[in-house]
Amino acid sequence: MGTRGALKYWNSMASKMDIAELYTAAFRQGRTLSDEGRTLTFSVVPIGLLSLPSGRIVASDPLTAGHPEPFVQTVIPGRYPVELSLARDGKGAERVAMARIKFTGRQPEVWVMALNKGQSQSELPAGGFWGYRSDSGTGAFMDANAASRADFAYLDDIDSLLLELTANYKPYRYWLEVPLDRRHNVVMFSSGEGEGSYPSYFGIDEAGDICALVTDFQLI
Q: Which of 98, 133, 208, 215 holds its CA 20 to 30 A away from the CA of 140?
């Protein structure tokens, strides 16, 4: 598939939500947005490198039991930077508005909903989305092969993990990179205002290649 064909293909799957401008603004240092009577100021924080040896990505709540499925969209295996968009309100409280994996330095042209096997965007009602449920107020990125190793809900030392996770706590956000073995890790972070269901979107550049993945914690 040529460049034009690839971008046309992604455009046919793209979300009808006007999210391109929002996602660009949220990852621009010092940008402010007004939303429902409040003003939010954004800052961008790098929090680690995610190892993706299989190129299959899982986004989930790592502190709840279960076996999360990877997205059907895949990327070239490698290690990629993870960044958070922090939103600070007028009272100085910060929350994680979005989490992003950057695969390239190119800019997205369209945003496509991240899907698990058996999901279809065409089946969704207007304004609906596929995403994962966070019950612990935490989200994460990991490789599909890391998901079976990252069953933190059953750890004997879960209190120690939580202590590490909140070591850099500031109302109301935290994050942590957790090594699992020589090839796998998990990058986790607080999820917006806590419990909820959250979608992820792949950013596609003008060549039709995946250049980013964003989980949106629905603060805006």
A: 208
